[in-house]
């Protein structure tokens, strides 16, 4: 046997079976970053004590009208006219953008005040907004 054959025999070792390594138990769980907000605390107890007052139910929202001389009041005055108002008139009056006026009509007038805003298109393509009675 020569030196080359002896070296290859010595370096080759028997291969073991292909088995996944055992999982080690994690000693440390995930931690929050230093500036991260803390989670909410769980509520304690179930029943209210006899000596404490019960919480008041929230007040029902009332339909409020805009202050006089405000832009919202001016918009309402224009759309309450029998012929209504077009978007260009409302834009010129308030200085608002078109999407802001439409949002006001939908949100404040339609949802909060509970009024029905009617939108119709004229022959010339202009949209007319009015309060439906």
Detailed description of the structure:
- By secondary structure, this protein is an alpha+beta fold.
- The chain has 4 helices and 3 strands, in the order ααβααββ.
- The protein has helices spanning 3-11, 71-79, 87-94, 98-112; strands spanning 85-86, 116-121, 127-132.
- It has a 3-stranded antiparallel sheet.
- β2 (116-121) and β3 form a beta hairpin.
- The longest helix is centred in the C-terminal third of the chain and has 15 residues, at 98-112.
- It is elongated, with a radius of gyration of 37 Å.
Structural class: alpha+beta
Question: Would you identify the regions where 5 or more consecutive residues have pLDDT less than 50?
Answer: none
> Helix coverage percent of residues?
25-40%
Mean pLDDT score: 78
Number of H/I helices: 4
- The global form is elongated
Question: Strands across the major sheet, in which order?
Answer: 1-3-2
Give the SSE layout.
Elements: H1 3-11, H2 71-79, E1 85-86, H3 87-94, H4 98-112, E2 116-121, E3 127-132
Antiparallel strand pairs: 1-3, 2-3
Fill in the keyword field for this structure.
3 strands, 133 residues, alpha+beta, 11% strand, 31% helix
